[in-house]
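Lab meeting notes turned into a lecture example. A postdoc, R.K., suggested we walk through two folding results consecutively so the class can see how the record format repeats. The first protein's sequence and structure tokens come next.
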Amino acid sequence: MKEKSKERPSNVSLPEYRHDSGEYMARYYQTSVNVTTKRLEIELKKTSAIFVSMDLSNNQFQGLIPEEVGQLHSLQMLNFSHNNFTSPIPTSFGNLVALESLDLSSNKFSGMIPSQMTKLTFLAVLNLSENNLVGPIPHGNQFDNDSYSGNLELCGLPLSKQCNNHGEAEPQAPSVAEHEDSQVPKFWQVVMMGYGIGVVLGLSLGYIVFTTGRPWWFVSMVERHLQYRFTNWIRRKKPRRN
């Protein structure tokens, strides 16, 4: 038995489907649309009801995302990036089991990543970067660091920052290289002080030599020192009498 649908414009392509329990007619509009998904902007031609995508990126939306979004079970691609959404990520997102791409980047989401999102087994692309998320990353599909960058209080794999017993990011201890670098300025301060004093004395002595020709006090001091060294050397070389 065929189900008769409402009339549509004659220039619209209307595909026909068959079902095991019988034959029926599924009629709907087909059109093309530009969609940003999986970090790429693509043009979808002849999209139909079996492909479901929501792209609200690059707007000025703010506040909370309604929990009702989690009831759109057929969603395959969801993009809320570059807005001003706040508050935690809705736990109802765990109901979007058909989701393949989720982009919530460049917002102001706070709180922890819902553990319910580990149910999204079809999720191939995830971007939660540039938010205010905190706490451990739920164990599930592991994505690269870029998926979580810009969230300074996130911890756990795949990030190098470990979580403490309270599920908070542990402060990173300064490395040996950083510790050594912190001591370098003090060392160079001492070196530069000695170098500066030497330069001042050298310039002063050079000025005296240049203006007076011979600094007699300096020459006399050097001569006395050389005479003393020479006298001691002669005494050591002189053979002892038995």
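The second example is placed directly after the first for contrast:
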Amino acid sequence: MFSWIGEVEVFDQVISLAESKVLTALGCSVLTVNEQGRRQALRPMMFFMAHCDAELYENLLEANWMQDLLSNMTLFGNSFEAYEQHVSECKNFRLTDSKKHILAIRQFVKELPMDSMKHIIAIRQFAKERSIDPFSDDLFCAFHGSSWHFFDIDPHSDLCDAKL
């Protein structure tokens, strides 16, 4: 079914057996190993990562932090611009009266430190981001905050110079 695209590999940690069978019948390879987003783009690849945690984007970028690998990637997922804005707005955040609630809830929360998004922030200078404009309520729920990301890295750019 997807012969004009090439191989389609799918991973979802909560995929059901029925979904897996349908995808296999459509010619997709259903991956069973959770790579935590660390798949290298050794050939041109499109990553569909709508509404994933920042940690998965960070892992994907870190695993592909070379010009030739990033140039193989197209990514549909959360807006990196929004992540950068959030980091910028929250870096001066101070706890006030609600400190007791925040401290009490911490044992139930898995927190992603801001510095663990360093690859997401650093790649912004090399990425072209096209936001999605959901034109109906149904699409808004599914795609709000999503963007296409295209990585056009100059072969002479040194990603090591990017501020991580």
